[in-house]
Design goal:
It is built from 15 helices and nine strands. The strands form two sheets. It has a five-stranded antiparallel sheet with strand order 2-3-9-6-7, with no helix packed on it. A four-stranded mixed sheet has the order 1-4-5-8, with no helix packed on it. The two termini are 64 Å apart. The protein has two domains: 226 residues, MetI-like fold; 129 residues, Sandwich (Immunoglobulin-like).
Length: 454
């Protein structure tokens, strides 16, 4: 006897009216949300997704965009010396700028907490963020100008140098040919004929504008007429030029000025026997010289070109100089973000450390920095992403002759594509390389943000 088991299925309960309304409400909400999101998605697709996909496709074609070349642009990219230099400079930017900014921001954020006018100080440091990169580039291009009369940095450097080293009085002065002065290899001038104590010499120079003479300069005529005393070597250094014309070359005219503050040496057997400086009328004298023959020398220091400062925008310093401008703009940003994290630290931990006898440096190193590690990481990664895309400052600050020495991937991409190279295939390949370098940092930041949200 076989038994047949029949499983009775109970009928599913009908959907209640309340559940149906809830389902329709959810569906309506999703449709409304999609309607609101759709414009943003379209804009994102038009401004981000389409350009990225187009650049990737364009990187596989030649300069004209008509012939498929495969990976030739990518291999060309790593053979081009300019591109390799751009990669090297971008690496310098990524290693140096975010680390310096994060460190400066941390130090300033900690110090600002101890300042009475903290809000005003933060506002002052954050203010450069309101300046566009174009304006900041122009400001620093002027500040880095090599001419001390224009560049404020070189003006300061030259002032400090001249305060300690001094400066030449007559950088443009020179002797007339055939007037008894011979120019040495080191730039100094020496009398051709020997002189002895009791002689008087006149040393005429030209090439000095009357407006460049020091204040209080007097005519040299009276000094040139004075006779040397016994055992004394006397002379005058003068400007061998008569204002308005006239006069005789090689002889001191009544209206010709002396050249004061000029160093003069009495030289014997190749060694300096005595040194003096000319007076306001250009006169000088040596006393107590031994008998014998001497030559009078005007050292090269009298004619040395003035110190012009540092070539901030030369091939060697152009990248550090531009990074300095970037620090000026972004230090306030790092300080404000780190300061916000600092204000949320548990004060009881800091106070407990102080009660246990820890000094401020130990608190900073052992408590503040470890607790701020998540904020410091976010700031650092954000700045890494930002410096990889830097373009404005490099393009504006670096002069044309050193543009290649300062170039980074973003500027190289523009120069190759539109700045004279007209090779948009290679430029697109550079853009794809830049995207690939930025993506890991972006992914790291997004993941860290999601972990913090949980």
């Amino acid at each position: 006897m076989t038994a047949t088991l029949v499983k009775e299925t109970s009928p599913q309960p009908a959907e209640s009216a309340g559940e149906a309304r809830a389902r329709r409400s959810r569906r309506r909400g999703m449709i409304i949300a999609l309607l609101f999101v759709c414009p943003a998605l379209l804009l994102l697709g038009a401004l981000v997704v389409y350009p990225v996909l187009f650049s990737i496709g364009r990187s596989f074609f030649d300069a004209s965009g008509t012939r498929f070349v495969g990976g030739e642009n990518y291999s060309e990219m790593f053979r081009d010396p300019a591109t390799l230099k751009a990669i090297r400079n971008t690496t310098i930017w990524v290693v140096v700028a975010p680390a310096l900014l994060t460190g400066l921001g941390l130090i300033l954020a900690v110090l600002v907490e101890k300042v009475r006018w903290a809000t005003a100080f933060k506002l002052l440091l954050f203010m450069p963020m309101a300046v566009s990169f174009l304006a900041a580039g122009i400001i620093f291009r002027l500040a880095y100008d090599e001419d001390p009369d224009k560049g404020v940095l070189n003006a300061a450097v030259v002032s400090v140098h001249d305060a300690f080293q001094g400066t030449s009085t007559y950088p443009t002065a020179r002797a007339r040919d055939g007037q008894g002065l011979t120019k040495e290899e080191d730039g100094s001038y020496r009398t051709g004929a020997s002189v002895s104590p009791g002689d008087t010499v006149t040393l005429g120079l030209v090439g000095v504008l009357a407006d460049d003479l020091p204040g209080g300069t007097r005519p040299a005529y009276a000094a040139a007429g004075q006779k040397a005393a016994s055992g004394e070597l006397r002379g005058v250094v003068y400007l061998d030029f008569t204002p308005g014309g006239g006069g005789e070359q090689g002889k001191v005219d009544r209206r010709e000025s002396g050249l004061p503050e000029m160093k003069v040496e009495a030289v014997r057997d190749g060694k300096t026997a005595a040194t003096t400086t000319t007076a306001s009328d250009g006169s000088f004298r040596f006393e107590g010289l031994d008998d014998g023959s001497y030559s009078v020398k005007l050292p090269a220091s009298n004619f040395a070109a003035p110190y012009e400062g540092i070539s901030w925008l030369g091939p060697t310093l152009v990248t550090p100089a531009i990074i300095g401008a970037y620090l000026w703009i972004w230090t306030g940003f790092a300080m404000v973000l780190i300061g916000a994290g600092l204000s949320s630290l548990p004060r009881d931990a800091l106070e407990a450390a102080r009660m246990d006898g820890a000094n401020e440096w130990q608190i900073f190193r052992r408590i503040t920095v470890p607790l701020l590690a998540p904020v410091l990481t976010v700031v650092f990664i954000t700045l890494v992403i930002n410096v990889m895309k830097v373009f404005d400052l490099v393009y504006i600050i670096a002069p044309g002759p050193v543009q290649e020495d300062a170039t980074v991937l973003a500027t190289q991409m523009w120069l190759v594509s539109f700045g004279g190279g007209n090779n948009q295939g290679l430029g697109s390949a550079l853009g794809v390389l830049l995207l690939l370098l930025v993506i890991p940092a972006m992914v790291f930041n997004v993941r860290r943000f999601r972990r913090s949200q949980r």
